[in-house]
């Protein structure tokens, strides 16, 4: 391993990536008042809640078991991925069996487990809460407020890197310099893995939300990760960082040092729906890509005077 990747390497055999952790315990304060009594993960984007896009990305990437880390007030997420016999029966009786089937498919597409983060101690802590459910195997992490539509899921791209090298991989993309304080930022060196071309970088440095002047590059962490189980032990050693929270980025720093970590400039476009403007932009872009609504919405926008 160390010869082919240039890393110290992951000492365990390479296992298939079957599980994904979706942190969904945040209070959604950037969306108030919309999130006063409803989880931000359930905010609707075009025709389905935000979290359904992310679960669908898991399914399209071959994930078999999704672990959602929830908290107080998040019960509607569980209801959304559960059966709703009353609704299904109602739709069947009205002859709308296609709708009944669509509703049922949401619960059938993948196995979902839930665990709760009891205190808002940060993203790293939320991932650590899933430790027992993940067990001793590699897993993906998907942040729910980043939507990446398309036929080539970012998570699947990272899984390919992990399964070929046994080294964790995180999705990155360029952001304007003045925005580095909103993201985790990485610096890396081109890696010698031919099949992934210039998209693969060996991580040298990671910083959570640096000021533009202090950022080691303009490559931001997108919110998709595939990690070996060793990350849990790194998280256990991670002290509160930026914002007083246990940051996943700080644990990744340890992992990068001890086993190595790839940054992968993934193919695709992400929409950061984590605040009101980003959410609005994501809504417009996904509406334009929507099979049913795309065309009429485009002609509405074209005809509108600005
Ligand atoms: C989190 C991560 C950050 C990453 C970002 C992507 O930050 O901590 O490293 O770049 O997601 O959206 P948050 O947006 O939760 O503050």
Notes on the protein architecture:
The protein is 35% helix and 22% strand. It has 306 residues and is α/β, with parallel strands linked by helices. The strands form 3 sheets. Strands 8-11-9-10-12 form a 5-stranded mixed beta barrel. The model has no long low-confidence stretch (mean pLDDT 94). Bound molecules: 1-O-phosphono-alpha-D-glucopyranose. 1-O-phosphono-alpha-D-glucopyranose binds next to strand 11 and helix 10.
Quick take:
The protein has helices spanning 2-5, 50-60, 75-80, 85-93, 97-108, 123-129, 131-134, 154-165, 230-236, 248-258, 276-289, 294-303; strands at residues 19-23, 44-45, 48-49, 65-70, 111-116, 139-142, 146-147, 168-174, 184-190, 200-208, 219-227, 261-265, 271-272. With 306 residues, the chain is of the alpha/beta class. The chain binds 1-O-phosphono-alpha-D-glucopyranose (G1P).
Which characteristics define this entry?
35% helix; Spore Coat Polysaccharide Biosynthesis Protein SpsA, Chain A; five-stranded mixed beta barrel; binds 1-O-phosphono-alpha-D-glucopyranose; alpha/beta; 13 strands; two-stranded antiparallel ribbon; 306 residues
């Amino acid at each position: 391993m160390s010869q082919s990747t240039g890393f110290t390497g992951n000492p365990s055999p390479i296992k298939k990536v079957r599980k994904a952790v979706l942190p969904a315990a945040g209070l959604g304060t950037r969306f108030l008042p919309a999130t006063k009594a409803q989880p931000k993960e359930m905010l609707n984007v075009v025709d389905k809640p935000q979290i359904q896009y992310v679960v669908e990305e898991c399914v399209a990437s071959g994930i078999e078991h999704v672990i959602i880390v929830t908290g107080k007030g998040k019960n509607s997420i569980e209801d959304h991925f559960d059966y709703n016999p009353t609704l299904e029966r109602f739709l069947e009786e009205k002859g709308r069996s296609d709708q009944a089937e669509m509703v049922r498919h949401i619960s059938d597409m993948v196995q979902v487990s839930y665990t709760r983060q009891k205190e808002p101690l940060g993203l790293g802590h939320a991932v650590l809460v899933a430790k027992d459910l993940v067990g001793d195997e590699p897993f993906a992490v998907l942040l729910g407020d980043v939507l990446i539509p398309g036929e080539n899921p970012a998570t699947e791209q990272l899984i390919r890197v992990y399964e070929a090298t046994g080294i964790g991989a995180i999705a990155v993309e360029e952001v304007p310099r003045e925005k580095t304080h909103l993201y985790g930022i990485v610096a890396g060196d081109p890696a010698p893995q031919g099949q992934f071309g210039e998209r693969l970088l060996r991580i040298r440095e990671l910083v959570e939300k640096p000021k533009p002047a202090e950022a080691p590059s303009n490559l931001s962490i997108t919110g998709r990760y595939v990690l070996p189980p060793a990350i849990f032990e790194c998280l256990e050693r991670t002290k509160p960082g930026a914002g007083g929270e246990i940051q996943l980025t700080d644990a990744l720093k340890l992992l990068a040092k001890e086993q190595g970590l790839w940054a992968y400039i993934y193919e695709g476009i992400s929409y950061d729906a984590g605040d009101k403007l980003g959410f609005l932009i994501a809504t417009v872009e996904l509406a334009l890509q929507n099979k049913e609504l795309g065309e009429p919405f485009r002609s509405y926008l074209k005809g509108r005077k600005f």
